[in-house]
Amino acid sequence: MKQLLDGNEAAALAAKLARVKVISAYPITPQTTVVEHLADFVANGELDAEFMKVESEHSAMSACIGAAATGVRTFTATSSQGLMLMSEMLFVASGLRLPIVMTNANRSLSAPLSIWCDQQDSMAVRDSGWVQLYCENNQEILDTTLQAFKIAEEMLLPVMVCYDGYILSHTAEPVDVLEQAEVDEFLPPYKYPYPLDPENPVTMGPVGVPEYYMEFRYMLQKAMRASQKEIVKVGKEFKKKFGRGDGLVERYHSDDAKIILLTIGSLSSSAKDIVDRYRKRGEKIGLVRVRSFRPFPVGELIDAIGHAKAVAVVEKDVSLGSAGGLFLDAAASFINVEPAPLMLNFICGLAGRDVSPLQIREAVREAAKAAESGKVKHAVKWLGLREKLVGLEK
Amino acid sequence: MSAIPDVELVAPGHGACAGCSCILTMRHALKALGKDVIISMATGCMEVSTSPYPYTSWRVPWIHAAFENAAAVASGVARALKVLGKSHVKSVAIAGDGGTADIGLQALSGAVERGENILYICYDNEAYMNTGIQRSGVTPFGAWTTTTPVGKVSRGADRPKKDLPAIMVAHGAPYVATASVAYIPDFINKVKKAAAINGPTYIHVNASCVPGWRIESERAIEIPRLAVLTGAWVLYEVENGKLNVTFKPKRRPISDYLKTQGRFRHLTEQEIAEIQRRVDEQCKRFGIE
Amino acid sequence: MKAGAVITEPGSTEKKHTGSWRTFRPIIDPNKCTACTLCWLYCPEPAIIKGKPHSVDYRYCKGCGICAHECPVKAITMVREGSCETTP
Questions:
Q1: CATH code (residue B219)
Q2: Is C4's Cβ below 8 Å from some Cβ in A?
Q3: Per-residue pLDDT tens over the stretch B108-162
Q4: Taking CB atoms and an 8 Å limit, are C66 and B56 in contact across chains?
């Protein structure tokens, strides 16, 4: 049934439909209403779950770990500083191979303080062993969160569903909300192979002595790489049942494009509009949207953009001291690969700064210039920067 | 004593030091609790010495997640047990004094405030022992540790023991008790009592550390006993706000306790007198002569 | 090797015979032992086997001496490990 929902409502509804049993979350802008909606569902008896009003995000993830290990489906949500505070436990959750699902409303990082949207938060924890799936719109938030439970429980990996704070979290869009019966058919009950149970006592989280730690890390890495297949499989299954959905990447007019925009998150929608306008004028511009950032879809990406002359990687984050996270992984995918497109990185939209069509066109122009000359003069550029304020007067 | 079960739920072959009385508290806590528990343990001596992959000493379900969050993990476990309808299984959080008084205080506070159905046991050997004897918030006044060493400018710990049990009472925990490894039947009774309550309960058990207190291993029980007999450590319980001192010793002078340990070896007569004064004040509050 | 390093064999440290740590070993005098179980109560490993008299599980005993120190009838003596003494 189609409803007008903002991103947070969609996330909360997905958790409800997934019949999560333990919710342990702490409020933080702009995730807050996810927690509030879930509290409402539980208070009204619409969702039969334990709702833990934990005292911090670190405890939120800790409680999820305890509950998931004991054998029930868990859920949490956070953003930004909360994700950072939780980060110690993110690594523990993945190391323990617990199938926890979390939604993250992408928000910028302090200092200086910012409540507005960018992807620095989830990018900062890309090493944590969590599958990271990025949503373009609110429909995707609902769909991907539901898929996340299935992927997590099959692979024994925690999954983070990311979506832009405010731009999606607080913006209403039409969302087709699936019926409970449909979801029950798609998503089987929670399964975890070694639950904490006095009838079959196990020890979880032992000391990973040097003789064994590396092997467990290898197993985790292997599972992460293997989850690419599972993400595609679950996506296909979802599409078959409900008629929509993507896999690891989405291709938009990219197959014959010489200039391709590589994007992640809701920015992709705006960028697609620009692509449409170029196409109307007969220019072969395309877009590839990364949905699965972890595991990084190396093979898929090479297939999707390898034929381009130049790729403009436009993203709302920067790995300080280096370049944008998406750019770094995308560029690394082409090491030792031929042919490889020229790649340019455009950092934009930090802390909710509007990414205008002009900025996207600038990215396309720069990529086109590089394609023309066969050279990239400056690999990284910041779009929409108030250059006067930082002494970069032209 | 015949009431103490024979079943060992903590297997030998663990790596605790010879004479470690903390592992003894684990052994007896599990005897009090029985097999229907899920232990959430914080990083620390008891955790590392009992779980070197691929070996484990635990014969009950056990999870180690991190250092500061035993109470939060145990809360998640308790909620899951509720969902699963396993009312006969108890979620128990165990942490050392480091993982409780300092880094673990937030998670503990949150769990108790929420009224989680968990028993929290803090084994208190009065410093961060697992990392090599650094001071914690419950290191007693005057004690040498590696971060409160004895030198020209400062001489041992200069802060009093943070009163964890009082903090728990202030949170309204329905049952809070102190215990000692030297008084095992008392400890076992208190654990049983605490575990039977549906709600957040707290036991703070004092135990010695051979390398950390600089004592001979054979005296590892005798010295915590002296802590109780001198009034340095008071055995009591608080049930729904009502205080009951469970043992009122005929007090021996504090020097009897202090002189047994290398961590107090540096104390002057004056410093010992100061410690005696503080102990006297503490005992007065508990009605111990 | 299970995912997440889960150990599914409870109590497996019993395979590690920590008796090799000892430099002193306790000898229980069967004539003095009253089987009061205090040594069993206070042994951290545990490495005391209840009985009449109690006996030591030398596979695990680390030689800490708590049992000898706590025994109310002084039935336990600590002798140097590797010595020929078997009786006190």
A1: 3.40.50.970
A2: yes
A3: 999 999 999 999 999 999 999 999 999 999 999 999 999 999 999 999 999 999 9
A4: no
Read off the tokens for B139. Answer: 């290191």
The model's pLDDT over A339-372, given as tens digits with 9 standing for 90+, comes to 999 999 999 999 999 999 999 999 999 999 999 9
Q: Which residues of C touch A212 (CB under 8 A)?
A: 1, 5
> A2-242, superfamily in CATH?
Thiamin diphosphate (ThDP)-binding fold, Pyr/PP domains (3.40.50.970)
Q: At what angle do helices A7-17 and A138-155 cross, to 10 degrees?
A: 40
- Maximum pairwise Cα distance, chain C: 53
Residues of C with Cβ-Cβ distance to A211 under 8 angstroms? none
Q: With contact defined as beta carbons under 8 Å apart, do A221 and A272 qualify?
A: no
What per-residue confidence (pLDDT) applies to A101?
A: 98
Query: How much of chain B, in percent, has pLDDT values that exceed 70?
Result: 99
In degrees and rounded to multiples of 5, residue C51 shows phi and psi of 170, -175
Q: What integer is the mean pLDDT of A289-317?
A: 98
Provide the shortest C-alpha distance from residue A156 to chain C (in Å): 8
- What residue in A sits closest to C3 (Cα-Cα)? A97
**Residue C8 to residue A194, Cβ atoms within 8 A:** yes
Domain boundaries, chain A: 2-242, 251-390
* Residue-range domains of chain C with CATH: 17-80 (3.30.70.20)
Q: For all residues of chain A together, what is the average pLDDT?
A: 97
d(CA A106, CA A104): 6
A71 to chain B: nearest residue by CA? B80
**Residue A203 forms contact with B (CB below 8 Å):** yes
Please name the chains neighbouring C, where neighbouring means 3+ C-beta pairs under 8 angstroms. Answer: A, B
Q: What is the pLDDT of residues B45-84, one digit of tens each?
A: 999 999 999 999 999 999 999 999 999 999 999 999 999 9
Topology of domain A251-390, CATH:
Rossmann fold (3.40.50)
Q: What value does the mean pLDDT take over residues A22-32?
A: 97
Q: Residue B88's domain spans which residues?
A: 21-285
When pLDDT is cut at 50, 70 and 90, the band that residue C88 belongs to is low
Please report, for residues A251, B26, B90, B155, B237, the alpha-carbon distance to residue B39 in angstroms, rounded to integers and kept in the order given: 49, 11, 9, 38, 23
Alpha helices in chain A (DSSP H): 7-17, 32-43, 57-70, 80-95, 120-124, 138-155, 180-186, 213-242, 267-280, 298-305, 325-333, 357-373
The answer to whether the Cβ–Cβ distance between B11 and C13 falls below 8 Å is yes
- pTM to 2 decimal places: 0.97
ipTM score: 0.97
Domain A251-390 in the same topology as domain A2-242? yes
If one counts the domains in chain B, the total is 1
